[in-house]
Amino acid sequence: MEIKITTNHILKVLEILSWIIFIGLCIEAGGTVANTIITLFINPLGVGNFWEGADYLSSLFESDQGYFFIITLTMIIVAVLKAIMFYLIVKLFVDKKLNISQPFSMELRQFILNLAYLALGIGLFSHSGFEYSLWLTIQGHAKADLQSLHIAGADVWLFMAVILFVIVQIVKRGIEIQNENDLTV
Amino acid sequence: MPIIVNLDVMMAKRKMSLNELSEKVGLTLSNLSILKTGKAKAIRFSTLESICEVLNCQPGDILEYVD
To answer: Any idea where the HTH cro/C1-type domain is (chain B) (predicted)?
Structure first.
């Protein structure tokens, strides 16, 4: 029996994946915010709850709370931006704004533009986190593992932002051609 | 738009209604309406040919350029 994979099947799988990633990112963002607040204002031993980055953040916290705050703030901003990005993707699926018969629309253009700006923001903040951790290393602190702090891959996010900005221009032209086609008798 | 569609003028001369023209040309009423009201961005040669055949006229009788 031949199984035919349609666009709708692929979109359904992507929707489920998007939900899983979105929930994971929400947990990550919420956890980072909660751990930061607990560590700074309630119990300094809360720094051990930072999953893989606990060792580095512990040493940073012991050295200077200001350094700790800046690094965790960067982590929080990046995590929240990622969560917002996948919230928009999930919202696109839930609101069923993707019309396969007439795919090029202003809503799609705005959606991709928003993703581009978010990717740019994630890239810039990740890069600033990297530069700051580099400065901390020069000051004598341990070398940060950006992967464990979830702020790695700034160049990849910036590349994605550029690609998305280009796609926005293509979609804009697609909208023009689609409108012209709709008014062609 | 500099191109004016004089479809209603030709339809009046041939005493043909929009419904009748739509049936004979094979175009939907909405598409004919888009053409008649000047909202169309483009017209296919096949459509123009059908309209001219049904209304027994030239393309210049339907399409007019004004400065």
So the answer is: 7-62
